[in-house]
Structures are given as structure tokens and as C-alpha cells.
Design brief:
Strand content: 5-15%
Number of helices: 13
Oligomer: single chain
Mean pLDDT: 77
Order of helices and strands: HHHHEHHHHEEHHHHEH
Strand order of the largest sheet: 2-3-1-4
Largest sheet: 4 strands, antiparallel
Distance between the termini: 59 Å
Structural class: alpha+beta
């Protein structure tokens, strides 16, 4: 038979079936169910016989003990175990935020407020121009008018300003020591430079204090000089412009001297060649006792022609005389001897003209005592060679003189000059540093680094085994 359930059991079963929402509810339900079960068992037991009063007293004591024991069990079930107390930890998040974000920001703000030295800026603009540069270059069209030379010179000046060579040049030409200017005790410790450092070590610091930009459209150069006093900034800018102008003038003079020197060397070579040829021509004329070999040849030809004419006339007279009288007549013999002499002289003149005579005892000599039996053809050939060489030497000398003239004109066209159209002016206020902006940048950067580090730390901690 099925056991009948009490109303308490009927009420408790729906709660057990539905389940409790928490551990405390489940413990309470179980304790209540145990108590109801004990009551049901006690009711079903038959009533015991009457006992003596002492026995009843003992039973009451036992029931009290059992009731107290049941109560202790319920309390034990209903009481949650005590959790160990957690130790109080330090707020590392706030501490890291203060060290990584707040502290750098405060130090930066204090530095810019009380320590940082004001920086003055002097801006100047200049250009390197040539004597032959058209006005279109000022309109931004240097490529159409051949402005490559001016642009290269401007780049040279810009690189020279950033180089270490400009520092000793400024000291030698203007007497200003740049390292002394930037090592004054009034400058804050972050920007104050050590005056005893070498030029190579000081160059990087110098480049930070100078900003040079070149405009490719107009060909102008803009230079900005940073210093820690208005007078120093202007003095440094003026010194840079002075040595830069000296550099441009030096390069221009050197280029002009090189062009003219090359042309002068060519003229000197041509002149020396022409001088040597003329000297040889003079020596030949003195040796041959002839100024013009063509005139000598013409004279010899004239002599031969006159001899032939005279010989022809004598032959005609001799033939006429022989036909009229005897050939043994004294007049005929005189004419015959004249004819023989003229023929011999004519043959000798022709051989002298052609250079086929033999050197004999009766060879003719010049007034200088030099044998000229074979001299006329050689003299004409030698005069001809020297004449051709002299003609080429004269042409080369003329061309070298023309080249020298054109080189001088070209050198004048290539002359460069340093034009400053925005002179340096002493600044009235300090434009740098940007205290608020720099402090804000430090704050944002510090916060960004701290945030990244915090997320990395939390990620590593959460995934740690």
C-alpha cells in the first residue's frame, strides 16, 4: 500500500519538483522535508503504554536532546561556509597611470613653464641669379629659359649652409663663433651646446638650428635661423648670408678664370706656332737672298725669255749675213760667237730653273756665297711649305683670338651674383617653443603608451596558466 502523504509533504513536493533558484533555498527545503518526515514517522508509531513518571521524564529529556540535535543539523545545513578574507591589494592601475601619464605631463609642463628658453626665429630669402637670366625666370618659368645653372648654384649654397665647413668660414670671415652663440649659460640645459665639441659633433646640432628650403618654381631660397636671443638670431643669419655671398662670388670668379684661361692657352699655342713659322720664313729669305720665290722664278723666266728673243734675233741676222757674204767674214764670226754664248747661257738658265745643272767649277753662287745650282726648285718648295704652314697658323691664331673674345663674353654671361631680397630682421617676440601644444602631445603620447601597456598586461594575466 502506498503511504499517504501529509499536507506538508504535498506542499513540499511541488517545491522540490520545481527546484530552487539558489543553494540556500535548496538547503531550506531539504531541512524542512526531513523535519516533516520525522513528524509523519512519529504519528504512525503506536502509542506506547503508560510509563512511570520517571520514564516519562527520561523520554522528555531524550526528545529535547533529539530536538536540539535536529536544530543543530538545520543550522549546520543552513549556515554557509566562511570564505577566507582576501588581502587588500595596491591599486596598481592608478599607480601605473600616475607614473606613466601624470608624472611625465607634469614634468613637461614644469619644464616649459619655468626652464625652457625662448627661441627666436629670423627668416630671410635670397636667390642666386646670372647676368643673362631673362625676366621670365621671375615668373616661375626657369625651365623654359635655361635656369638649370641657377638652380644648381642655389642647391650648392643650401648644402654649404648645412655643412660643417661654414662654421670655420663664419669665424674667419665675420669673427662670429657659432659654438659660442649656442653655448651661452642662459640657454636651458636641453638646448645648451658644449662649446668644446668638435665641428663634426656640432654639425648635427647646427642642422637642427638652421632650416633651408628651395622653391623649384621661383628658384628662391628661404632660410630660417633659430637662436635663443633676438640679437643672436639676426647675427647668425647675417653671418650666413655674408659667407654664402663670398662662396657664390668665388665660384663665379673661378669659373670665369677657367674659361678665359683655357682660351688664353689656346691663343698662346697658336701665337707660338705662327711665330716659329715666321722665323723659319725669315731665315730662309735671308739664306736665299730672296723675299719672294715666285718673283725669283718669274725673273728667271723673264731672263730665259729675253735670251731666247735675243738668240732668235742673232740667228736671223747670222743667216741673212751668211746668205749675203761668206761665213768666214769677221762680222759673221762675231755673230756666231754671240749665238754660241747665248745658247750656252740659255741652257744654263733653263737648267737652273729646273734644277738639273751639275756642280762644276763655274757654278754660280749667290751673293752670300752659297751654291744655288740646285737651290731654286728647293727654295720654291720650301717657301711653298712654309707659306702653307704660315697660312694655317694665321687662320688658327685668328680663330683662337675669336674664341678668346667669345669666351670672355660667355664668362660675363655666366657670372653669378647673390641677391638678398628679404634681409634678416631682428625678431620682436619668441615664437617657440609651443608650451601648451608640446605638453598636450606628451600627455597624448604617454596615455597612448600606458593604454597599450595596460591592455597587454591584462591580456597576459588573463591567459596565464
Amino acid at each position: 500500500m502506498k503511504e499517504e502523504k501529509t499536507p506538508a509533504q504535498a506542499e513540499a513536493e511541488p517545491h522540490v519538483a520545481t527546484g530552487a533558484s539558489s543553494l540556500l533555498d535548496i538547503a531550506k527545503q531539504r531541512a524542512q522535508q526531513r523535519a516533516d518526515d520525522k513528524k509523519v514517522v512519529a504519528i504512525k508509531k503506536p502509542a506506547p503504554a503508560k510509563r512511570p513518571a520517571v520514564a516519562l521524564a527520561d523520554d522528555e529529556d531524550g526528545l529535547g536532546a533529539r530536538a536540539r540535535k535536529a536544530t543543530d543539523i538545520v543550522k549546520t545545513i543552513l549556515t554557509l561556509p566562511e570564505m577566507p578574507k582576501r588581502k587588500r591589494q595596491l591599486p596598481w592601475t592608478a599607480i601605473s597611470f600616475g607614473l606613466a601619464v601624470v608624472l611625465p605631463t607634469i614634468l613637461t609642463a614644469l619644464y616649459f613653464a619655468f626652464i625652457a628658453s625662448p627661441q627666436y626665429v629670423v627668416e630671410t630669402q635670397f636667390a642666386v641669379r646670372g647676368a643673362n637670366q631673362p625676366s621670365l625666370g621671375a615668373l616661375g618659368l626657369p625651365a623654359l629659359v635655361g635656369g638649370g645653372g641657377q638652380s644648381s648654384d642655389s642647391y650648392i649654397v643650401a648644402d654649404y649652409i648645412h655643412s660643417a665647413q661654414i662654421l670655420p668660414d663664419i669665424r674667419e670671415q665675420t669673427g662670429v663663433d657659432i659654438r659660442t652663440v649656442y653655448s651661452r649659460p642662459t640657454i636651458d640645459f636641453l638646448y645648451r651646446e658644449n662649446g668644446t665639441r668638435s665641428l663634426d659633433e656640432f654639425r648635427d646640432y647646427w642642422r637642427d638650428m638652421i632650416n633651408v628650403s628651395y622653391n623649384t618654381t621661383t628658384g628662391n631660397v628661404t632660410m630660417r635661423v633659430f637662436a635663443f636671443s633676438s640679437s643672436d638670431a639676426k647675427q647668425v643669419a647675417e653671418s650666413i648670408l655674408a659667407v654664402s655671398e663670398h662662396l657664390v662670388n668665388t665660384l663665379s670668379d673661378k669659373s670665369r678664370r677657367q674659361v678665359i684661361e683655357t682660351a688664353n692657352q689656346q691663343v698662346a699655342r697658336s701665337e707660338e706656332r705662327l711665330r716659329n713659322i715666321r722665323k723659319q720664313m725669315t731665315e730662309l729669305q735671308i739664306t736665299e737672298q730672296a723675299v719672294d720665290p715666285a718673283a725669283v722664278a718669274t725673273m728667271e723666266a723673264t731672263i730665259i725669255s729675253s735670251l731666247e728673243q735675243e738668240l732668235a734675233s742673232l740667228r736671223t741676222r747670222y743667216k741673212a749675213l751668211v746668205d749675203s757674204i761668206s761665213s768666214d767674214a769677221p762680222s759673221a764670226r762675231v755673230i756666231e760667237r754671240k749665238i754660241s754664248a747665248l745658247e750656252a747661257q740659255l741652257v744654263e738658265q733653263k737648267k737652273r730653273l729646273t734644277g738639273d745643272t751639275d756642280q762644276t767649277a763655274d757654278s754660280k753662287t749667290t751673293r752670300a756665297g752659297v751654291d744655288t745650282s740646285n737651290a731654286l726648285p728647293q727654295m720654291i718648295s720650301r717657301f711653298s711649305e712654309l707659306g702653307v704652314e704660315q697660312e694655317f697658323a694665321v687662320k688658327a691664331y685668328t680663330a683662337s683670338l675669336a674664341s678668346l673674345e667669345s669666351s670672355m663674353q660667355e664668362a660675363q654671361k655666366q657670372e653669378r651674383y647673390f641677391a638678398v631680397y628679404v634681409p634678416p630682421r631682428e625678431p620682436e617676440v619668441a615664437l617657440y617653443p609651443f608650451s601648451v601644444l608640446n605638453t598636450g602631445i606628451v600627455l597624448l603620447a604617454s596615455f597612448g603608451f600606458w593604454l597599450i601597456g595596460y591592455f597587454v598586461f591584462r591580456s597576459v594575466k588573463d591567459h596565464a596558466i
